[in-house]
Design brief:
Layout: E1 3-6, E2 9-13, E3 25-30, E4 33-37, H1 45-55, E5 61-66, H2 72-75, H3 78-85, E6 88-92, H4 93-101, E7 123-125, E8 129-134, E9 137-143, E10 152-158, E11 161-165, H5 181-192, E12 198-201, E13 205-208, H6 210-218
Parallel strand pairs: 4-5, 5-6, 6-7, 11-12
Antiparallel strand pairs: 1-2, 2-3, 3-4, 8-9, 9-10, 10-11, 12-13
Helix pairs in contact: 5-6
Length: 223
């Protein structure tokens, strides 16, 4: 089972699709290549693979796993996805350090009664903005710290819509996660200015329409 969002864009994981506790997992097809945004906790990897394979026609390669941040509900399944598809794992350098160290506190794996097994990040981003080429698509990664030091959002244009993968726009802000409330507020303003048509959030699903996206983001802003 998967949830179609646009042509060549699906939700393939998350609570109710894969395992309880998984944040939403999105799949985008770009010609003969595809990218997965986040990987859940990893507890229902076989189900996730079934959903991905049902979306991608023969000859389409899942080439990228784009991690939005280091938290376990988004990254616990990353190594299993790479082992299955041979894809490159992308994350921001400031969060990659905790993934490669297997830090179960900063990644919040301990909140799930789990331990994060360390894994290597293939492509560590360090710029404020990085354009990634995935098949026919250009997917832009924006560093928006606050929820975690190396939080990223990704955006691309599909079907004349600006699609924003903002997995944990809602936060939370917590000292154990090395969150920074002031940076979070600045980051919210930055993504508000993108004026996205669709927001694909990690725990609230799809927010459809410019005004709905603006309302959702503003609801977490101080002013």
């Amino acid at each position: 089972m998967n949830k179609p969002i646009l042509q060549n864009l699906w939700q393939v994981g998350g609570d109710g699709l894969t395992a309880p506790g998984d944040a939403a997992i999105y799949l985008i097809r770009c010609g003969d290549r595809a990218a997965l945004i986040d990987a859940g906790c990893g507890g229902a990897h076989g189900r996730l693979v079934d959903h991905i394979d049902a979306c991608l026609p023969k000859g389409t390669r899942l080439s990228h796993l784009l991690l939005t941040h280091c938290h376990f509900d988004h990254t616990g399944g990353a190594e299993a996805v790479r082992q299955t598809y041979g894809c490159r794992i992308v994350a921001h350098a400031q969060d990659a350090v905790y993934l490669e160290a297997g830090d179960s506190e900063v990644t919040a794996a301990s909140w799930y009664g789990a331990r994060l097994n360390p894994f290597t990040v293939d492509h560590k981003l360090s710029q404020e903005e990085t354009a990634l080429t995935v098949g026919r698509c250009t997917i832009t990664a924006l560093h928006w710290p606050g929820h975690s030091p190396g939080s990223l959002v990704y955006h691309t244009t599909m079907d004349d819509k600006l699609v924003l993968f903002g997995q944990d726009v809602h936060g939370p802000i917590h000292p154990a996660l090395l969150s920074d409330a002031a940076l979070y507020q600045k980051s919210l303003k930055r993504i508000l200015d993108l004026d996205a048509d669709l927001l694909l959030e990690g725990h609230f699903g799809v927010v459809d329409g410019k005004e709905a996206v603006r309302r959702f983001i503003r609801s977490y802003m101080d002013t």
